[in-house]
Amino acid sequence: MSSDPSRDAPAAPAGACRVVRADRGAVLVVPADAPEAQAHRVPLDRDGLVPTGDGVRVPPTVGDVVDVAPGHDGAPPHVTLLHERRTALVRDTAGRTSLAQVMAANIDVVLVVEHLDPDPEPGRVERLLTLAWRSGATPVVVLTKADLVPDPAGMAAEIAGAALGVDVHVVSVPDGTGLDPLRALLAPGVTLVAVGPSGAGKSTLVNALAGREVMATGERRADGRGRHTTTHRELVPLGGGALLIDTPGIRGVGRVADEDALDATFADVVELAARCRFRDCAHAAEPGCAVRAAIESGELPQRRYDSWLRLAREAAWQARRSDARLAAEERARWRRETRAYHRDARPRA
C-alpha cells in the first residue's frame, strides 16, 4: 500500500470545469458536467488572473467555466482559459477605480433575500433588484422570517410595490411555508445566487432548499438581527442538478445601476416620465410634468421617486467614470503602439 495518501486521491479534473470557489492564488473546481463531484484546488498564475478568449486577463469568480490542463512531471494542473460568461452579477467598486467586481457568473436566477423582521427596506430591495436586472438573470424576491411578524402579507404587498414585474415569495423556514415555489425553480442545470443583507437568513434558506445543512447559520443577536455567517461565495449543489451560490451579507454594493437595469426596476417611473410635456423634463417645476403630478396625487410614492433619482445619478456618474477609464486605456494603447513602431523603425547598428 502506498504511504502517500495523495497518490490514492482522484486526480484533479481536466477540460471544462466550473469554479466552486475562488480564493487568492487558486480556485476550487469540479467538472462542468458533474457539479456534485469532489472539488479540487487548482493554482492560478502569480497575478491571480486567467486569460479570456480575446486575450484579456481577468480574475476568476465563483460560477465561472474554465478550461483546466493537467500537470506533467509533477507540476500541478493549471487554468488555461476562462469561457465567456452568459450572465454576471456585478458590483462597482466604491473607490476611485472604475473597475467592477464580478460576484458570480453564469447564473440563471437571482434571489433577492430580505427579512421581514426587522422591518424590510424597500430602497435596499430596489437597489438589489437593479443589481439583479443588470446581471442578465431573472430576479426573484424572497421575504424571510414571516413567522416573526403579525402581518407578513401586508408587508409583502408594500415590497411588491417596489418589485414590479418580479415574483415575491413570503417564506418561513421554521414553519416550512413558502418554500415550494422556490423549490420549483430548482431545475437541472439552473444556477441561483442569493443576495441580501447580513442576517436576512440566506444560509438558512440555502439549507432548507438543499434539504441538508450545507451552510453554517448563526443565532439571532440581542437586538433581533441575525448574525453574519457566510464569509465567502461558494457554489453549492442542491440536488437534482440545481446549484446555488450563497454570498456574504452586502452592506454596500457600490454603484449598481446601468440605464437598462434601472428602467427594469423603475418601469412605473419610466412610463410616467414618457408622458411629460417636455422630453428633457427634470421633474422639478416644469409645466406638464407627469412624474410630479403622480407624486402629488399619491400614485407614485415620494420615497420611490427619490430612490429612482438616487440610482439614476449613480448610473450617470458611473457611466462617466467608465468612459474616462476606457479613454485612458485607449490612449495608453496608442502610446504603446507608437513606441513599438518607432522602436522597430529605428535603424539598426
Index terms:
349 residues; five-stranded antiparallel β-sheet; disordered N terminus; alpha/beta; six-stranded mixed β-sheet; 29% helix; flat; 15 strands; 8 helices; single chain; 22% strand
Task: Characterise the protein shown here.
With 349 residues, this protein is of the alpha/beta class. The chain is built from eight helices and 15 strands. It has helices at residues 122-135, 152-160, 180-183, 202-210, 259-265, 267-273, 290-297, 302-345, and strands at 15-23, 26-31, 40-43, 50-51, 57-58, 65-69, 78-82, 88-92, 100-105, 109-115, 138-144, 167-170, 191-195, 234-239, 242-246. α1 (122-135) crosses α5, α1 packs parallel to α8 (302-345) and α5 packs across α6. The longest helix is centred in the last third of the chain and has 44 residues, at 302-345.
Provide the structure class: alpha/beta
Largest beta sheet: what is the strand line-up? 12-11-10-13-15-14
Contiguous helical run count: 8
In angstroms, what separates the terminal alpha carbons? 66 Å
Main β-sheet: number of strands, strand sense, barrel status? 6 strands, mixed
